[in-house]
Amino acid sequence: MRDTICFTLNGKPVAVQNPDPTLTLLNWLRQTRSLTGTKEGCAEGDCGACTVVIGDPDATPTWRAMNACIVFLPTLDGKTVITVEGVAKDGKLHPVQRALVEHHGSQCGFCTPGFVMSLYAHYRNDGAVDEETLNDILAGNLCRCTGYAPIIRAAKAMYEYPKIDEIVLAPAIKQDTLALTMTCPITGTMKKYFAPQTLDELATLYGEHPNATILAGGTDVGLWVTKKHAVLETLIDIGRVAGFAEISQDKTGLNIGAGARYAAAHAALGGLHSTLGEMVRRIGSTQIRNAGTIGGNIANGSPIGDMPPPLIALGAKLVLRKGETTRRMALEDFFIAYGKQDRRPGEFVESLFVPAMDPAARFAVYKISKRFDQDISALCGAFYVRLQDENVTEARFAFGGMAATPARAKTAEAALIGKAWNEANIRAAMSALAQDFTPLSDMRASANYRLQAAQNLLWKFYLGEAAPYLARGVNHG
Amino acid sequence: MVKFRGVPHDSAHKHVTGEAIYVDDLPCPPGLLHLQPGLSPRAHAKITKLDLAAVRAAPGVVCVLTAKDIPGANDVSPTGTGDDPIFAVDEVVYAGQAIFAVAATSLAAARHAAALAVIEYEDLPAILTIEDARAAKADLEPEQLMFMGSTEEALRFAQHTLSGHLRVGGQDHFYLESQAAQCLPGEDGDLVLTSSTQHPSEVQHLIAHMLDKHSHDVRVHVRRMGGGFGGKETQAALIAAMTALATHKTGRPARLVLDRDDDMIMTGKRHDFEIDYKVGFDDTGRLSGIFLDLASRCGCSMDLSAAINDRAMFHADNAYFLNNADITSRRFRTNTVSNTAFRGFGGPQGMMAIERVMDAIALHLGKDPLDVRKVNLYNKMGRDFTPYGQRVMDNVAPQIIEELETRADYAARRVAVRAFNDSHQYVRRGIALTPVKFGISFTTTFLNQAGALVHVYTDGSVHLNHGGTEMGQGLNTKIAQIVAAEFQIDFAKVKITATDTDKVPNTSATAASSGTDLNGMAAQQAAQTIKTRLVDFAARDAGCTSADVVFENGHVRAGEKNWTFADLVKAAYMARISLSSTGFTPRQTFIMTAKSISARRFIITLTGPRSAKLRLMC
Looking at this predicted complex, what is its ipTM? Predict the structure, then answer.
């Protein structure tokens, strides 16, 4: 067992013994290292002002833009960390920096280090510079001054500048398991952190510490610390468990390890259906997709998590493990009530199985949110039907944001089973959907809006991908 | 030649390397205290119990500040209305109002301690919306009226009349750098503040007032802000005042950088409006007259609401001749955060009103909205007076709209949009071409003044300081260019320094789109004063007339003589000529009496049209 984390910071090795397990990278950089180029804009992973780049030969992509405000320091063990201070070399600006200066990409400058680092990660990954790609990789960086146009112009030009020497990627080194302890000087709490390296080790540790918080991407747990000021006594970081992030595919379907990040699973999920790929893209910014995991989105049981509705509609199965024992269940059965999942003490989500798409099936998922990118859904609707001779033989309509858990619209489904796939029956199912849900009104949407939008999403699903092009006054049945 | 175009922002290099320093990036001075305010979760309530014992006893806490610690005025109201307490006493009037602040040895300790306060409340009726306030007649100040001609009569004889209502929402500024300030103790109880503010002089004056000190005891400087957008015009004072109070009480440096959530809860936003209109017009859509009622939610205090609502009235014509107008403005007090300056300062809300009217008329008559806009534009004689009595001069709106209409091929696009909408069921397209006329000047006359300070050193380098603040708009770059051009020296020879109440006193806020014009003129004047001295010296030395002295490319020629700028400066110094000067611009404006809101309000009106196209999936 080790009590010291080691990583490289801007090319130089760093070792920190028993740090506070929930000390954020941002606070450590600014307060301990006096590296104040990385800014705090929101402390919740939304604005991107704190973006840094983390290099990891085992990750997809290798160079990840991450929000330092919600990255806990111990998770950096073994990584290559680069901040805005490390990008220029010997007083010479990096091409990304030169492009931003010469295209007037900064005004007040406070968001600029974050933009530099998002572009830097993209540059190191040899990313494309078409407008669509750039809009996506910068969706997690807010700027209030420029209107973005000069930043996009700079990004398009970044490969045109002469290359400079880059910080090299530190190789992955096999080391002992990390186990940290420290006492919080303010609350007096004894804090522990473990980073198991195998599934067996994880199962044993979690069995010994069933009240521990399991830390995956930290895109939610990070906010418990920065916003709710929660004191987490024991953390088990699943980020180094071998094979836990694996994604494999065969004829029967897709197996996704619970530790797989959105960024890594994006291509495989997009391969199942294009709307699912778009949903993953819109679930969060590049920084969030580089951190957050599919397993985390499921395990934390949020009623507005975006992954459960499409996965339920697709008939996904969940594999849970406790000690040596694993059990398998339909994903929808995992969610019992608000804040309550079918997970026993010491039991954790191990993997997810998504069956292969049936050629006779139709599927789509839609996300409705106030902001197009990087926003929490007002509602999310996913639809799966199987048709035989134009009759519906199977239907699964799953929604987020409509109830206390991700939930199926079983009355609406029943209204269609065995019926013809036509306008009249869809309209009837839309009416039936009103009996499935009593949504809440909150700042994201009113109850009426949610219900009407949910019904209309079913209509949109019926119209299919041609909806935007459909002509007026034509019967679409 | 001095380069003017394409010059990067003076801090661009520092922005991209992370070297540009904002308040929270300053090295921590020894003994630095970190502050965390404790906020009311109630909109309107009596404080029945305030027990801060646990806060005081928490680890790392050095002191807890409340209104009782304030020796002078418990107020940061910008216009002397006395209704913006730093800490609430006995009663809270909005959710997010500060009741106390903890000063501790670390930010984590301060935040942990602040959560330990035991506060009990007795809720009082809260006015939250404009509708509530109208019903309760909760006006912050009397209704304002602006009129031109006889609207009543115009509407009686109008071919058509329409009435309607619209709601314009508020916004948070979301400057990326949240509100921040740091205070250092000086000799004799003096205080030195670094504040992220658009208005350092106001922060200085309010802190002196709070501590019962003189303004000369308090120094405020601002190198840059991480965005302001109006949100740091008055709102920064509260944050700076808390740090000053902590330093005053403990003798230690203090810093307060608001958490984003606290910033959004505690500080003011754009005024939301409820607007009612009744308009008369003819078959072409041309207005014969309009009744407009602009009601806004000002929040719990006056702040800048008077000037903001005035500006909404001044922009309710946008670029159109209203013919006869009767514009009323209600400024409502509510139990919500006090709304404040925000990009456009009420102007956009006024413009929204008249633009909606244009669209409503077009819809009613079945006309293209652009045609309705065009027949209503300010034009020549007789159709060139605003409702506030200013003649619209140099009006280029008709020409530029025509040019844009042609260049953007508006007509053809409009036909295509219609065809698309006629043939598609679920997607709607739209196109609009809209003018904007915006008045540039503070509507509060005395604020139209600025000062600058220019030093020329004997090596020919120039130190420039002015009363404006840099928040990303490139103000410093522009003003350095003005000074470099005056001396005909390289831009790099002019060093821009942090705005500082020690260098230029009694400044106005950097606001009202006036920063460059006001401060640039002051800096130019300061440079010209020095330049005149140098010209006289050079002419004397060369035995020629002043008219023969030429500044060019870093050199100065006079008759037969030719110096580098640095050599001339050195020689002037040896001849005991002053190489430092202040500059001052009192901007010409017309005096207005309080009763009539009519006169020449704006020195410059900018006009710019914009065309936009959008697609809506419904």
Answer: 0.95
Domains and CATH numbers, chain A: 247-471 (3.30.390.50)
Whether the per-residue pLDDT at B596 is higher than 70: the answer is no
Q: Are A385 and A421 in contact (CB under 8 A)?
A: yes
For residue B117, CA distances in Å to A80, A185, B37, B56, B58 come to: 42, 20, 11, 9, 10
A85 touches chain B (CB under 8 A): yes
Are residues A102 and B20, on separate chains, in Cβ contact within 8 Å? no
Decide whether B130-169+271-422 matches B449-584 in CATH topology.
yes
What are the tens digits of pLDDT across the range A28-81?
999 999 999 999 999 999 999 999 999 999 999 999 999 999 999 999 999 999
pLDDT of residue B598: 44
Q: Tell me the chain A residues in contact with residue B471 when contact means C-beta distances shorter than 8 Å.
A: 108
Note the pLDDT of residue B607.
62
Q: Give the class (CATH, top level) of B13-125+174-266.
A: alpha beta
Q: Report the alpha-carbon distance of residue B386 to residue A302 in Å, rounded.
A: 56
B55 interaction partners in chain A (CB closer than 8 Å):
none
Model confidence at B5, in pLDDT bands (50, 70, 90)? confident
Question: For chain A, which ranges sit under pLDDT 50?
Answer: 475-477
Q: Which of B13, B112, B617 sits opposite A187 (nearest CB)?
A: B112
pTM of the model: 0.95
| B15 to chain A: closest CA residue | A109
CA distance between the termini of chain A: 65
- Neighbour tally for A149: CB within 10 Å: 11
Residue A279 · residue A294 · CB < 8 Å: no
Contact between chains at A106 and B11 (C-beta distance less than 8 A): yes
Counts of helices then strands in chain B (DSSP H, E): 16, 27
Other C-beta atoms closer than 10 Å to the C-beta of A315 total 18
Q: Is the model's pLDDT at B612 over the cut of 70?
A: no
- Does the beta carbon of A423 lie under 8 angstroms from any beta carbon of chain B? no
Q: Give the orientation angle of helix B347-365 with respect to helix B369-376, to 10 degrees.
A: 120
Topology (CATH) of B130-169+271-422: Aldehyde Oxidoreductase; domain 4 (3.30.365)
Minimal C-alpha gap between A469 and chain B (Å): 7
Interface of B with A in 49-78 (CB under 8 A): 58-60
Whether B15 and A112 lie within 8 Å, measured CB to CB? yes
CATH architecture of B449-584: 2-Layer Sandwich (3.30)
What confidence score (pLDDT) does residue B439 get?
87
Weakest mean pLDDT among A137-146, A160-169, B342-351, B441-450:
B441-450
Find, in chain A, the residue whose alpha carbon is nearest to that of B57. Answer: A186
Q: How far B344 CA sits from the closest chain A CA (Å)?
A: 14
Residue of A nearest to B114 (CA): A229
